[in-house]
């Protein structure tokens, strides 16, 4: 394990695509920001420890709701175009 010391506003670069930045420091806690490509799944350690099945189920539910909203939006646009004709 690599252990680094960073101060507020300092960052760590992982490869070309990932940046971890110290946003805020305080008593017993550090707030970090992570910039990474959208296809990377980033989760808190305690969630990963609970098993990926729960995360997969939550993500699947989110994606299903998002896809349904997209379909409804597309359907609404199609109806609006028909009405305009």
From TrEMBL:
GO terms for biological process: bacterial-type flagellum organization; mRNA catabolic process; negative regulation of translational initiation; regulation of bacterial-type flagellum assembly; regulation of carbohydrate metabolic process. GO terms for cellular component: cytosol. InterPro entries: CsrA, CsrA_sf. It is found in: Cytoplasm. The keyword Cytoplasm applies. Keywords: Bacterial flagellum biogenesis, Cytoplasm, Repressor, RNA-binding, Translation regulation. GO terms for molecular function: mRNA 5'-UTR binding. Coiled coil: none annotated. Homodimer; the beta-strands of each monomer intercalate to form a hydrophobic core, while the alpha-helices form wings that extend away from the core. A translational regulator that binds mRNA to regulate translation initiation and/or mRNA stability. Usually binds in the 5'-UTR at or near the Shine-Dalgarno sequence preventing ribosome-binding, thus repressing translation. Its main target seems to be the major flagellin gene, while its function is anatagonized by FliW. Belongs to the CsrA/RsmA family. This is Translational regulator CsrA. It comes from Planctopirus limnophila (strain ATCC 43296 / DSM 3776 / IFAM 1008 / Mu 290) (Planctomyces limnophilus). The gene is csrA.
